[in-house]
Design a protein that fits this description.
The protein is mostly helical and 58 residues long. It has helices spanning 8-35, 46-53. The longest helix is centred in the middle third of the chain and has 28 residues, at 8-35.
Length: 58
């Protein structure tokens, strides 16, 4: 679009900024995912829970 306004420093800065943002989002999602675990409700049987979520209760 405006190739005269772009230089190598600007492109490099944009790539680094994007990488930092993506890494921060991935770390944040990993932290949230580790905290939340699926627990079996009292009213659900063990076999129903395993069929629906595919893992056993700890």
């Amino acid at each position: 679009m405006f190739p005269a306004n772009y230089n190598l420093g600007l492109i490099f800065s944009a790539v680094i900024t994007m990488a930092v943002i993506v890494i921060m989002i991935r770390i944040y999602l990993n932290i949230i995912n580790k905290r939340g675990s699926i627990n079996k409700p009292d009213w659900m049987s063990d076999s129903e829970f395993e069929d629906k979520f595919g893992k056993k209760q700890k």
